[in-house]
Amino acid sequence: MKQPLICSGHSRPVSDLAYSNESADGCYIVSACLDGKPMLRDGNNGDWIGTFEGHKGAVWSSRFNSNATQALTASADYTVKLWDTLNGGELLSLEHQSIVKTADFSRFNNRIVTGGAEKILRIYDLEKPNVPLAQIPGHQSMIKTAMWSVYNDDVILSGGNDEVIRIMDLRSGTQMALCAKAPISSMEFSKDKQYLVTTAGNEVTFWNAQNFHPVKVYSLPFEVICASLHPDNSRFIAGGSDFWVHVYDFNTGNEIEVNKGHHGPVNCCRYSPDGESFASGSVDGTIRIWLAEIIDRFQKSTTTFHSKQKLEIEK
Strand order in 214-219's β-sheet? Predict the structure, then answer.
């Protein structure tokens, strides 16, 4: 059985985690936790770098900007906070009227979107953050996740408990709705921007990231809370109610591997930018980093074995 790197430090369930983009210094992980203390870690070995101090309630989501110099956290204390990742300082605190579940940077780091129990999306310009640029209604219940399109800085996607993914064009004011069979629990874009990956109920759906048509839908034998696609699109991970992190073949949906170790439901999982590892966060209060390269080595050695076997037969 694969042995993960166990990252302790949080005292309550880990609700979200995100990797930074790769840089000359490697990559980082920022984690959100119901203990109200988001943490910054080394993305390769999980070593603790620092804790962002200032929230007075559970933190539900965490995200980096494109160069990892800043991080966003959304909290049950009715705020979204912007942090300096170099010194841990609080740069900005945006007040809301209720619990905030999600926040995300735009592609060029100049705007953010937030959402939560208010059932509206707020758009802020970080150069003039005192008043929201826009407040967008549409959802009928809690917004759990919101993000910017990887193709258009005027398009926002959001999903939540009303079982609908809404795609909103800020310029035209138009909205498009993608219906699911259960509340939307997670969303991410693939590394190559080809797919939007969403989870709802026991389903993982891969949508075309430009026209939002469904490409693949896989029903799994457990409640799926999170999923992430490998950077080369060969496989994906999924976690949820059964405490395990599963690895599946992207093309067939067949299970490749099961990673056991968490002692509670898996709330979040992400592949590292280079695909050599993936991280998972759980209700058990830990983050675990699993080395994906073990799978790669096995697959490569199997391919080599079959190739040699074929050559022997041909001889």
Answer: 184-189, 195-200, 203-208, 214-219
For residue 242, give both structure tokens.
């059964």
Could you give all domains of the chain from N- to C-terminal order, each with its CATH number? 5-314 (2.130.10.10)
pLDDT digits (tens, 9 = 90+) for 70-101: 999 999 999 999 999 999 999 999 999 999 99
Element housing 301 (H / E): helix 293-314
Picking from 277, 237, 282, 290, the residue whose alpha carbon sits closest to that of residue 263 is 282
**Rounded to whole angstroms, how far apart are CA atoms 292 and 203?**
23
CA distance linking residue 154 with residue 171, whole number of Å: 6
CA distance 275 to 268: 16
Structural tokens at position 261:
């170790």
Record the pTM: 0.90
